[in-house]
């Protein structure tokens, strides 16, 4: 029998590969080669599955990154570097999944609320790192948004911007900080 996490991961895969309309009990059961009874063992229908799937997405694709960055060390630079590495190196967090969730958010109020919360959490965290780096307070919000929008935009263009190019763009953006305020490496 598949675990609840197995079902949620299968849901993220279906969402990433085929979009929200493909999230059906039948499609999930076929992907896991299991019966509907197994699905209903963990979830109270598709509405319950969707709610749990969105929580899982938030935990795995926002909370896990922030927790990982926080565990990287005491310096804001170490946290920021580790955050970039986690986001850009995570093969499980495909651009397709982020795009699929954003597309779904345009059609579903529950998903829209999640996307809004996730975007705010991500920007808030980057803003806090900017402040820890010694960046000017007046620049904290615009810089956090700039760094986040670079990632979102890089996911949306066709083809998506490769991770190595994104690292160069982030390094360039961080050089916008006045030299006297830059962290020493």
From TrEMBL:
UniProt DNA-binding region: 24-43
What keywords appear on the UniProt entry? DNA-binding
Q: In this protein, which residues make up the domain named HTH tetR-type?
A: 1-61
The record, for InterPro entries, names: Homeodomain-like_sf (IPR009057), HTH_TetR (IPR001647)
Gene3D superfamilies reported in the protein's UniProt record: Tetracycline Repressor, domain 2
Query: One Pfam annotation, family name?
Result: TetR_N
Designated name of the protein: AcrR family transcriptional regulator
Species source reads Nonomuraea africana
